[in-house]
Specification:
mainly alpha; 3-stranded parallel beta sheet
Length: 199
């Protein structure tokens, strides 16, 4: 996103600019670069700087950075102040592009398979419930964050697919190598455990 007085409107406008991320060499850097390239812009032309999400709107407003990559509620905060969505990162990469997952070690799984299975089953049930009941999901946000209720009503809710899109996850692994975060890729199957029922 860019500030209210910015004339940046698309990926090409980000070339040569400074973009704030919450962490360098993480999912933000990888997906922003991949999305820029997907939209025909040069991902190697940008400079990234690390700023915590809550500090990003002020950094943008004061001109410390040209653009920010931030989730809700900061996205709504910036748009509400007249800012612009310059590059819809995940939408540029594909429908339901993966943004996060839960992981464990082989060692823990070997010793605690029932615990992991129960956790995965509960998460999948929660994802389905949130998908089927978005307003109920919205209400829970105030129970574990400090986001004011009036802001919660305005923010964009994410999507909560329980299915893992192996092709897109493979793409993400490839982007991570391409942009220098990992040295070599690996089969997507190495990351997926099939033990939990989705019921």
């Amino acid at each position: 996103m860019s500030a209210k007085d910015s004339d940046m409107r698309d990926a090409k406008d980000l070339e040569g600019k400074t973009i704030a991320l919450n962490a360098l060499r993480g999912v933000g850097e990888v997906t922003v670069k991949a999305a820029m390239e997907a939209e025909g812009a040069d991902p190697n032309s940008v400079k990234f700087t690390e700023i915590p999400f809550p500090d990003m709107p002020a950094a943008l407003e004061k001109g410390r950075v040209d653009a920010i990559w931030a989730p809700e509620p900061f996205l709504t905060q910036v748009l509400g102040a007249g800012g612009h969505e310059v590059l819809p990162v995940y939408q540029s990469l594909g429908p339901l592009f993966p943004n996060g997952a839960y992981a464990t070690t082989d060692e823990y799984l070997a010793k605690n398979e029932k615990v992991v299975e129960g956790f995965a089953r509960a998460i999948n049930k929660g994802l389905k419930y949130a998908t089927d009941n978005p307003e109920e999901a919205r209400k829970t946000i105030t129970t574990f964050t400090k986001i004011p209720p009036d802001v919660v009503q305005k923010i964009r809710l994410p999507l909560w697919p329980a299915e893992i899109d192996r092709e897109q996850l493979t793409d993400l692994i490839g982007y991570t190598q391409k942009y220098g975060v990992i040295e070599k890729t690996f089969p997507v199957e190495d990351m997926i455990w099939e033990g939990a029922s989705k019921d």
